[in-house]
Write a structure and sequence with these properties.
The structure holds 2 protein chains of 2 kinds. Chain A is built from 10 helices and 3 strands. By secondary structure, chain A is mainly α. Chain A has 2 domains: 8-87 and 103-133 and 217-287, no CATH class; 136-211, no CATH class. Chain A has a 3-stranded antiparallel β-sheet with strand order 2-1-3. In chain A, helix 1 (8-34) runs parallel beside helix 10 (260-287). The termini of chain A are far apart. Chain B has 2 domains: 3-111, Ubiquitin-like (UB roll); 118-246, Alpha-helical ferredoxin (Fumarate Reductase Iron-sulfur Protein, Chain B, domain 2), CATH 1.10.1060. In chain B, strands 2-1-5-3-4 form a 5-stranded mixed β-sheet. Classes of the chains: A mainly alpha, B alpha+beta.
Chain lengths: 288, 251
Amino acid sequence: MKLIKLASITKKLAVGALAAFLLIFLPFHMGMNLCILRDDGGEWYRNVCHFMGTNYIVKCFEIVLLLCVVFHIVLTFILWLENRAARPVRYAVSQKSKTHQGSKWMIITGGLIFVFLILHFINFYFAKTGLVEGKYVVKVEKVQKAFSAKAMAIQQGQMKEADMQKLQKEYMSIMAAGEKLASDGKYYVNLSKQDLQTYFGENVEEYDYEPDFYNMARDLFHNPLYVIIYLLSFVILAIHLLHGVVSVFQTYGLMNEKYSKAISYLAIIYAIVIPLGFAIVPIQVILF
Amino acid sequence: MDLTLKIWRQENAKAKGHFETYKLTDISPECSFLEMLDILNEQLINDNIAHPVCFDNDCREGICGMCGLYINGRPHGPDEGVTTCQLHMRRFHDGDTITIEPWRAKPFPVIKDLVVDRSAFDKIIQAGGYTSATTGGVPDANAIPIPKHKADEAMDSASCIGCGACVAACKNASAMLFVSGKVSQLALLPQGKTEAAIRVKRMVKKMDELGFGSCTNTFACEAECPKQLKRTNIARMNREFICAKVCSEEK
């Protein structure tokens, strides 16, 4: 049974290429998360999030990344079905060969990582797209710019006296938002949807509010149940990577007698260091 | 040694098979595995119990690749680097239960009992596992200079006897180790190199057509290969395949 009429090796190469992109992406995400560890009230992390959320090149990569995840899952699932079909009658005694069994767990660990991804999307990505309510930040600079533009308009007589009062009222309410000011003074942070309404009124859209991932993450990492799920997910990711990284090299024919040892060690280091980097963040947040 | 054997019995390719249990007593530990089955068959015939158990075998010295039984969850049994015929009963314990199954793979249908049809391998070889040049007489030794390490590698890859243990061991019933051995032995030497690109494409295509699974890098094949072919052959075939697809002008 062949669900996709491509050579088996071509399909494997495609899965490997998609995986390779994800492998390159992971250190970036990890580096971003590690910014949370910095004791600066989220200054670095917020700046990184702002860059990732607004830069057009990053946005393009975001689409590529999502497609990579989807096709990696779809293709591997198809391969799994095809591979099962290659042995219609199973053995009565399960395999006892002396070999590492990493590949047997790939579909299971992969599935569990997918479940975690859904959770991750609900918690963070959907807040960004507006599907789920989260916490938000507003850039002070944006508010000031919009404000001075309006004040200018009034001064030049393009706006009526009545608007003046409205502007004053708006100014007062935004001043009240000052208690939400971040330590670097560049953002109003930790704002709920309600806060946005209270402080910024109907003009909130023009201030380009962004999700406050820093406070959302810290809130979640103070929940022990979420931390356990999070840490387990990265143990599962480590298991997935332990087989996956070497497999990419093997599938692309880069393993030979000369380099296979070095590549295997590098893969093990990658598979441990990356999940560890992710795992440090909630541990630090919940313990310290 | 007293043994309990659980053996797969299947009348013919279309019949439904089942496990049959036989008891054997007083088997010598010096006896080979196939000799043990011979003793069982003698008893089955003499005592008029059942038809003898069918199993493939020929040379009984580990070079022909005919024998191949899935013994207690491992192709060719518990020893490493041997075929079923080279396995001896001293590797088992008195009172053991031994489960014997035929190779299980879609391209290897069971013909009878423990005998499977492995002509799928022949079809893969027919698809490209050869050099098409007529070679004429035997050339002088060293007429074509070949570095020693290349000759060794090619010889190692060529040691495959086509028994099918790699397919039997693989959780996906993939024939990658077999095909990669054949691709490698020819691609490594100058005589085979000229047709390497078209060969790998044809052989992989045939392998897929026949319904073998794909490789998920478990390397059970390497662990079970009686000739201990290495996984580097599979990497080499992947490399050859990519080169053939990307660089070769042949379709």
